């Protein structure tokens, strides 16, 4: 296995590159746009996530010996293309929505500018990262809204492929989760990690009491004991007998949670453990979290539903050519005409239009050519949504790593505040604000 | 970033290991089992996939300096546990279903034997890999059944996180797909790769005709031209004018496919291109494929639905302690009692019971202790389903790499033939065969 990310790519990008280098169109300046025609599942907003990861993966996007040999041996491209790929480094420019930003149908989430050959081969990698991470972040943001002030932990690694699990932990954190069970996400991005014990811990011991006693000895009375391996009522009683009324928390992972949480709270209070917190973790999604709002629950652990986008495991973002130069060097807006999958040609600048601090529209200024579009801070269109992520091949490192992750989270929590109240409802509906296209001057 | 896979792990496995090393239970011999309580989505069978990947990831499951420092700095484990982890290599034994095998509720898909400390920390990695890959393979197998003799290509990389995309291509291939667009899957596992051009190729050129001509020049007349960027009828006409009636194929990526496929076939035949094949690729799943059975379609390309498990992006496999020794060295079967999430204790051997060559039951022999269970070829229970994947820490390399992938695919296609006809229907139902528990002698 190689450290290169260049083969996280669909073959057709390389066959197009090959043919384009032959006929000369490979050097045509182009503008590609990554956007979504719709919001999945009647969601009222989408959350952009993955940008920081994509930039890091772009640093390793080069074709090594193994990749070049594969392309040659399988005759996927010819010698001219092999020589081009041997020296390939993306030297174009990428502007895009800040990670954590909200998006709506048509939002120009990424704009990739470069020659056709330079830009066409980023399609799959960019879509893979943004479609996955944004799907998770969008679901996570809804859960974070539903949970209010109560902390949410992401615990879904086991229900996502091993690398996606790390990315999902990051996306959930950006969208408002406070911690993850995934150690790699802690190591790579500084996300707070958590976790104490599984049912196997209780089953390993000769009695539940032995298991609790050993856990308290190792992790202290502030630990969280899992009380539902056998009988919950007995589990709570044993937990407090062993740990005392200073026990940090108990976790419930099964049963009818509103009922169970209420009876566990009552029992804890009766035993004098009024400060012992209740964490629930059984098959939660945003709806189950909302349904527990009036229950005496102190924290949520969410697994499957957050890492799988709560019913929508991928965003529906696409990567389309929207403008290019022709043989004479003039810019041409281009768009696919297919009836059910059309696209909007032209280079775009995007703004969140606000009235009294509340978002009222996603305003997209479309330029028919390649003219400089005004993206200044004071633009009358509203708050500018795009930033420069890569300038002539130079990646802005401030969006990567733990720093980029923290700033994406802060950005998300800030811009979510701009949304009208209707954006916060969980039911299926239209996007919370309309997308309005205007001509760029 | 490190090459280790040891941190693809939930923190609680390490806190349990830490506490178990302190209280002495860490050295208790244990049997963990990976199984599923149910088949997702009313599926009639599940397909085991990921085993070969898991074994390769297990080779890199060791704690390096970075991981150990993180655990120390964050006080997740104590010094004793750090010393244990520093030298950690899995030295136990793993038996399991062959990759490509079918599974049913309760099937002991993996049985991991070792000390508690040895075996508990494989939970997340094993589940991540098998839950993801099996979800994809299960959906893919249904699509492969629906497509009959027509070839299926996996093209969903853009709708899966970048590493999952590679795993998904492999899982789909094991379950009957014939090719993938994902280059990395070709490089790593020798899966046939395919792909020619996207809409951006047509949009890059001054006319559709220029684009087709250039593609045919580069890739030959056997290539597949994408004909729906503008008007499909004109696209077909242009394609044949440029490439001649020997054109290999056309691809349709939008519109009402049964209608469009029929009219494209008619047009091609009228133009004399009777041998030109039609590939369709627009939002297909197993139901859409089945609905096209009577249409003149020659091949399918499937994206989103296969990489997301067609509505069920994760299998619901869990990893549970089922037997362990007590303080006196006697074996004890253990099981969680939670009402909605119970488990079946004891070590198990599994057989597919056949009558006249047709599967009639998943027979699971349960041993209350750790006795050797008879898994011989001639077992009266039927065809033995488990093989030894890791013996005292030694990984069987025949299940890894391109060879393991090919043999998993062959195994899947072979054992699918054993299923009763009702297993092949797409509608929601009970598992195709019942799970029957018997006592092991």
TrEMBL record, chains A, B:
Q: Which residues cross the membrane?
A: none
List its EC numbers. 6.3.4.21
Residue ranges occupied by any Nicotinate phosphoribosyltransferase N-terminal domain in the UniProt entry: 8-131
A GO term from the CC aspect: cytosol
Which GO BP terms apply?
Answer: NAD+ biosynthetic process via the salvage pathway
Q: Which GO terms describe its molecular function?
A: glycosyltransferase activity; nicotinate phosphoribosyltransferase activity
Reported modifications of this chain: Transiently phosphorylated on a His residue during the reaction cycle. Phosphorylation strongly increases the affinity for substrates and increases the rate of nicotinate D-ribonucleotide production. Dephosphorylation regenerates the low-affinity form of the enzyme, leading to product release.
Q: Which Pfam families match?
A: NAPRTase_N (PF17767)
Q: Reaction(s) catalyzed by this protein?
A: 5-phospho-alpha-D-ribose 1-diphosphate + nicotinate + ATP + H2O = nicotinate beta-D-ribonucleotide + ADP + phosphate + diphosphate
Annotated Gene3D superfamilies: Aldolase class I (3.20.20.70), nicotinate phosphoribosyltransferase (3.20.140.10)
Q: Which SUPFAM superfamilies match?
A: Nicotinate/Quinolinate PRTase C-terminal domain-like, Nicotinate/Quinolinate PRTase N-terminal domain-like
Q: Which UniProt keywords apply?
A: Glycosyltransferase, Ligase, Phosphoprotein, Pyridine nucleotide biosynthesis, Transferase
Q: According to its UniProt record, in which pathway does this protein act?
A: Cofactor biosynthesis; NAD(+) biosynthesis; nicotinate D-ribonucleotide from nicotinate: step 1/1
Summary of the function given for this chain in its UniProt record: Catalyzes the first step in the biosynthesis of NAD from nicotinic acid, the ATP-dependent synthesis of beta-nicotinate D-ribonucleotide from nicotinate and 5-phospho-D-ribose 1-phosphate.
Name the protein family.
Belongs to the NAPRTase family.
Name the UniProt record assigns to this protein: Nicotinate phosphoribosyltransferase
Species of provenance: Microbacterium keratanolyticum
Top-level taxonomy? Bacteria, Bacillati, Actinomycetota, Actinomycetes, Micrococcales
């Amino acid at each position: 296995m190689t450290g290169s990310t260049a083969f996280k790519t669909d073959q057709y990008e390389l066959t197009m590159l090959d043919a384009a280098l032959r006929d000369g169109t490979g050097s045509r300046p182009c503008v590609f746009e990554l956007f979504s025609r719709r919001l999945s599942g009647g969601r009222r907003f989408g959350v952009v996530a993955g940008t920081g990861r994509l930039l890091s993966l772009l640093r390793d996007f080069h074709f090594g010996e193994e990749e070049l040999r594969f392309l040659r041996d399988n005759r996927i491209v010819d010698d001219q293309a092999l020589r081009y790929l041997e020296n390939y480094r993306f030297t174009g420019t990428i502007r895009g929505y800040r990670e954590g930003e909200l998006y709506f149908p048509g939002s120009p989430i990424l704009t990739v500018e470069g020659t056709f050959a330079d830009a066409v081969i980023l399609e799959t990698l960019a879509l893979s990262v943004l479609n996955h991470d944004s799907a998770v972040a969008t679901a996570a943001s809804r859960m974070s809204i539903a949970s209010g002030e109560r902390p949410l932990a992401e615990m879904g690694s086991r229900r996502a492929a091993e690398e996606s699990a790390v990315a999902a932990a990051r996306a959930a954190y950006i969208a408002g989760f406070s911690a993850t069970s995934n150690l790699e996400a802690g190591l790579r991005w500084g996300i707070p990690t958590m976790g104490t014990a599984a049912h196997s811990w209780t089953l390993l011991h000769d009695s539940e009491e032995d298991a609790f006693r050993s856990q308290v000895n190792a992790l202290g009375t502030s630990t969280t004991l899992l009380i539902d391996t056998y009988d919950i009522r007995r589990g709570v009683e044993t937990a407090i007998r062993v740990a005392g009324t200073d026990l940090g928390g108990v976790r419930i992972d099964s049963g009818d949670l509103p009922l169970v949480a209420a009876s566990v709270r009552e029992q804890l209070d009766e035993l004098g453990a009024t400060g012992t917190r209740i964490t629930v973790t059984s098959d939660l999604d945003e709806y189950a979290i909302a349904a527990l709002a009036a229950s005496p629950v102190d924290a949520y652990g969410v697994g499957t539903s957050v890492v799988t986008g709560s019913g929508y495991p991928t965003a529906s973002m696409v990567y389309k050519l929207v403008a290019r130069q022709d043989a004479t060097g003039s810019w041409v807006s281009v768009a696919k005409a297919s009836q059910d999958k059309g696209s909007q040609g032209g280079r775009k600048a995007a703004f969140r239009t606000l009235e009294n601090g509340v978002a009222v529209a996603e305003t997209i200024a479309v330029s028919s050519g390649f003219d400089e579009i005004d993206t200044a801070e004071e633009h009358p269109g509203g708050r500018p949504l795009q930033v420069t992520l890569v300038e002539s091949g130079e990646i802005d490192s401030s969006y990567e790593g733990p720093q980029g992750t923290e700033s994406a989270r802060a950005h998300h929590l800030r811009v979510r505040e701009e949304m009208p109240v209707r954006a916060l409802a969980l039911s299926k509906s239209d996007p919370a604000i309309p997308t309005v296209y205007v001509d760029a001057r």
